[in-house]
Amino acid sequence: MLRSPTDNSAMRRSATVRTSVGFVVVALLCLVIADIQVTTVAPWRELGRLLTGLVTPDFSNPAAIGTALLRTVAFAFVGVALGASAGFLLALIFHLRVVRTLCAFVRAIHELFWALIFLQFFGLHPLTGVLAIALPYAGVFAKVYSEILDEADPLPMQVLPAGTGLISGFLFARVPDAWPHLVSYTAYRLECGLRSSAVLGFVGMPTLGFALQSSFAQGYYSEVGALLLVFFVLIATLRLWVRPWLVPLYVAVSPFLLGTGLPIMWGNVARFFTEDIVPAPLRHGEGWAALWQWFSDLLLHEALPGVWTTVVLTQIALVGTGLIALLAFPLISRHFTSRPGSVLGHVALVVARSTPEYLLAYVLLQLWGPSMLPAIVALALHNGGIIGHLIGRRSNEITLRPDAAHGLDRYAYEMVPRLYGPFLAFLFYRWEIIMRETAILGILGIATLGFYVDSAIQELRFDRALVLIVITALLNIGVDSLARTLRRRLRLRHMVNCEP
């Protein structure tokens, strides 16, 4: 029996409602068992000191701030340029299963995990920071570039004269149509690269994160305020100083601004691959029975607890992200705010989406103490700011009737129903990204998978760390696959060039 379009639409709405309610229920159950206590003695006093520092920034050391800023930009440009170049080449053969699998694996591992790996054999060398950004970004670029190229208009390729070479046809028929989307997406990834570059400072690279961590540890909140304001201005003005004709110059100059760092000990590289990452029982010749016992102990006491905590925190943060996005998008929507109000809304969302989750979680941990609460708030604010910005822009494309409702009725009955599909699509896309960030926040002391990875590296047990990183990647790949399935079943679509 054929169903009418109205019946199909009603079924999709019903499935969307059931899915949304299911996620909220799961998040509430996770919240019941989550550790969200504030353990510091005077959290509000420390927060007041931090806010005072933000409004009284100390720019008395411009040389240090400028150096950290330049190196943050340099690592971002070099890493993103290498990642985009490799990703474009991989996009041409992305139809091969082995390439898709490889790209899925490398992009499922967070930049900080890659940095921790490279630190073991490259040390504090610029190559560590560059590769930590370039490698996962290459996997992301390959996937998105291939989607953009596949969605390009096929007609120009079909009308090419006989005898046109494959490369010539690709460059002159497929690329021009996709070029605006390729450029738009690459510009977005550059903003992401700046955030990634800043966060690399927390593992020792000489970027803004290193300066922020040093100033915060010493209680110099005015210096923290100055560094944060500089970073926010850097992100907010990205479109003003990153002009297409200037990008080749930036990429050419950036390698000379990375610094020198410590020399690479190539013996450490060889030892890492031939000894350090070999499971201890095999390295010591203890046999397969000992290897199984070693793996079972790792799985039971570290991997499974880490996976459980990572999933619990992710689900709470995912629903928190959705709530913040739904509350935030009217801040920049022409249907709810005036021009001055929209400007203030844009500033608020720029701050939220420009502040890396890791950095925000680090600050909140110092204020509230070690629990899941700082991580939940950091993840929800950052990702909610991103989705709120995207949905707000989408709302500005909607034209309402002259007699449309106003105020809360407009929000609840006119805008949210029309925007809920794109909202869920973006939210499900961010699900895997939130999972990646949740895992890495364990380095700050929260008992997610990153906590056990960092502990293993600190103890020089790289074999255990590598297994845990692989488990982290597989978990991220699984969540990404589940999110794609949900988007497909609910028939949720969003423009690929709007979001990584």
Automatic annotation (TrEMBL):
The chain crosses the membrane at residues 21-44, 64-92, 112-135, 155-173, 194-212, 224-242, 249-266, 307-331, 433-453, 465-483. It is found in: Cell membrane. It comes from the Bacteria. Keywords: Cell membrane, Membrane, Transmembrane, Transmembrane helix, Transport. It is a multi-pass membrane protein. GO terms for cellular component: plasma membrane. The keyword Cell membrane applies. This is Phosphonate transport system permease protein. It comes from Modicisalibacter xianhensis.
